[in-house]
Specification:
By secondary structure, the chain is an alpha/beta fold. The chain has a single domain, classed as 2-Layer Sandwich (Transcription Regulator spoIIAA), CATH 3.30.750. It is built from four helices and five strands, in the order ββαβαβαβα. A five-stranded mixed sheet has the order 1-2-3-4-5. The protein is globular.
Length: about 120
């Protein structure tokens, strides 16, 4: 199943919804391109919704880490939401839970950006 992307703005956060398998090849390359494009367009706060991603391989995980690093280098951040049980286990096994902030829902993820940057 090919990987598809949908992005939308919610309260100053770019929510990138992925659907399909995130694996080595076109899928990883496409995601890398989408993330690069969003970051270069000035989207600093990115929340990746993985609720419709049944499987991620090591190349897919590497692409997420590269996106996280690119966002940080540009002065932003990238967080994850709606992880399946399998993907949650992968993040624990690879210790990537120490890298990514992970949220149970898109709403909680979006809220976390405003919680971490209070305006006054």
């Amino acid at each position: 199943m090919a990987l598809s992307f949908k992005d939308e703005q919610r309260d100053g956060v770019t929510v990138l919804t992925l659907s399909g398998r995130l694996v080595l090849g076109d899928e990883s390359n496409q995601l890398r391109g989408v993330l690069k494009s969003l970051i270069s367009e000035g989207h600093k706060n990115i929340l990746v919704d993985l609720g419709e991603v049944p499987y991620i391989d090591s190349a897919g995980l590497g692409t997420l880490v590269a996106g996280f690093t690119s966002a940080q280098s540009a002065g932003g951040t990238m967080k994850l939401a709606n992880l399946t049980k399998k993907i949650t286990e992968q993040l624990h096994i690879t210790k990537l839970v120490t890298v990514f902030e992970v949220f149970d829902s898109v709403e909680a993820g979006v809220r976390s950006f405003s919680d971490s940057h209070p305006t006054s």
